[in-house]
């Protein structure tokens, strides 16, 4: 991992995750978590203030040590235990069926081996557990899709982001059933603005 990935990219990610659309929609996902919670891609901890005080424990999974350092301050203010795990989601170092809620906000686009990560999410969830998510991805409109495909290599190189992933199909193919899912454009450039938001169970 080079200097850019270790030191520059985490700062850009933190700033990018604070845009207007994300700030508006962010609270709706972590606020619904219960029990023992795993957030994949916890980043700089922007979701931490929105978790209910009653959750038992929050595990924050994140491969970037720099982002975990930024998340430390938010964790100190939390009313529940927060435990950071410096790891990617392709191999989650938690026991089978040990988590009540997994949370993912704008994370699945950046995981290199997305199928492996979703299999791990399913593995650690208890029977009846919930996967809560909001993710941007493949749009339904061919002109937008063409731009997503053209720009995908650029976004992968600069930000580790794949803007053209069909998030609903990937989650379903991993063995999840949707309790609810909304598919809609949020504010912003259309090639980044189509979102999937919902809840799924293993």
Structural class: alpha/beta
- The domain tally reads 1
General shape: globular
* Main sheet attributes: strand count, strand direction, barrel closure: 7 strands, mixed
Low-confidence stretches at least 5 residues in length (pLDDT < 50)? none
Structure write-up:
By secondary structure, the chain is of the alpha/beta class. The protein has a single domain (3-201), classed as Vaccinia Virus protein VP39 (Rossmann fold, 3-Layer(aba) Sandwich). The chain contains seven helices and seven strands, in the order ααββαββαβααβαβ. It has helices spanning 3-16, 20-25, 65-76, 114-124, 142-159, 167-173, 190-193, and strands at 36-40, 57-61, 82-85, 99-105, 125-136, 177-185, 194-201. It has a seven-stranded mixed sheet, sandwiched between helices. The longest helix is centred in the last third of the chain and has 18 residues, at 142-159. The chain is globular. The protein starts with a helix and ends with a strand. The mean pLDDT is 93.
Briefly, what is this?
Helices cover 36% and strands 25% of the residues. The protein has 202 residues and is an alpha/beta fold.
Q: Secondary-structure map with pairings?
A:
Blueprint: H1 3-16, H2 20-25, E1 36-40, E2 57-61, H3 65-76, E3 82-85, E4 99-105, H4 114-124, E5 125-136, H5 142-159, H6 167-173, E6 177-185, H7 190-193, E7 194-201
Parallel strand pairs: 1-2, 1-4, 2-3, 4-5
Antiparallel strand pairs: 5-7, 6-7
């Amino acid at each position: 991992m080079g200097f850019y990935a270790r030191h520059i990219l985490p700062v850009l990610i933190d700033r990018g995750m604070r845009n207007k659309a994300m700030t508006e929609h962010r609270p709706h996902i972590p606020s619904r978590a219960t029990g023992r919670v795993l957030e994949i891609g916890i980043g700089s901890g922007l979701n931490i203030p929105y978790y209910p005080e009653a959750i038992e424990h929050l595990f924050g999974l994140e491969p970037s040590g720099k982002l975990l350092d930024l998340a430390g301050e938010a964790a100190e203010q939390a009313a529940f235990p927060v435990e950071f795990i410096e790891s990617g989601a392709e191999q989650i170092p938690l026991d089978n069926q040990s988590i009540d809620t997994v949370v993912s906000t704008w994370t699945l686009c950046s995981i290199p081996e997305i199928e492996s990560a979703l299999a791990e999410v399913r593995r650690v969830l208890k029977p009846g557990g919930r996967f809560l998510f909001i993710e941007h991805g493949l749009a339904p409109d061919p002109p937008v899709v063409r731009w997503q495909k053209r720009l995908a290599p650029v976004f992968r190189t600069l930000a580790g982001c794949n803007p053209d992933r069909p998030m609903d199909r990937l989650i379903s193919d991993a063995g999840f059933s949707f309790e609810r899912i909304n598919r809609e454009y949020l504010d912003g450039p259309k090639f980044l603005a189509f979102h999937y938001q919902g809840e799924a169970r293993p």
